[in-house]
């Protein structure tokens, strides 16, 4: 399968390298980035074409499918372009940066009559998260009553905003929590510390209420400093189950006893990204993507923008879902 990649930042570059090295039956044939020199460098590593625009890449005769790793504000228009061209696409989250935009993408895919888009919610492919979900859904800890999630990044991107903490970072939990518990989010309340006017509101804590009445806390920080850290604990009537820290070797030196914590989310989820890309390629070759759908992205956006309203002073905000279109049955 001949794949074009839009965006050669850290994520896009990793996808190019992963497809080239780890995914049988995949070939990166074209690359585009607004930084053309960067695009040429990444394309040169895999002997791919460097094209002059994303539109040219999506419609190119040597491209069968597209990976979109461009900045968030471009996701909607690129998803719509892929749908218009009939190109399957793996789209990094979020689906769009507005609810209207997310709905336009879903409506366009429904109008096409078939699934072409998959969202890059890589946690669904992570071995630890899959084991955690299996334990939860099997009843190993009894009836689930609560869960606690921590999601910390070492340092914020210079463009980070308070709303972006929810729409860009916490959106992973807005997808993974309903998937993990098999229980949609019904309401969200966001709390943030008092900061000087105009300063980034970091750390943020969301309280999610699910349709089945479970309560989930989600703490997200984009400036944790010490490293990248993702944790989840699920509490049931018969016990608890947690992710164990996926850190490497332990050190005892300089009056310190502990383990080094990495600061790179790509490294933490490297295996998940490999499995995600391999699964996506195989499913597209089989007829249609089977991973997280545009509808899953739409639902995550619904929670994210309800959370933005809550952060802005609305308090507890209930989350609408809407009727799932038929093409997403089973998603």
From TrEMBL:
**UniProt keyword Oxidoreductase present:** yes
Q: Name one Pfam family in it.
A: GFO_IDH_MocA_C3
Q: Which EC numbers characterise this protein's activity in its record?
A: 1.1.1.18, 1.1.1.369
The Gfo/Idh/MocA-like oxidoreductase N-terminal domain extends over 1-116
Coiled-coil intervals: none
Domain GFO/IDH/MocA-like oxidoreductase: from-to ranges: 129-241
* Name used for this protein in its record: Myo-inositol 2-dehydrogenase/D-chiro-inositol 1-dehydrogenase
List the source organism.
Nocardioides marmoribigeumensis
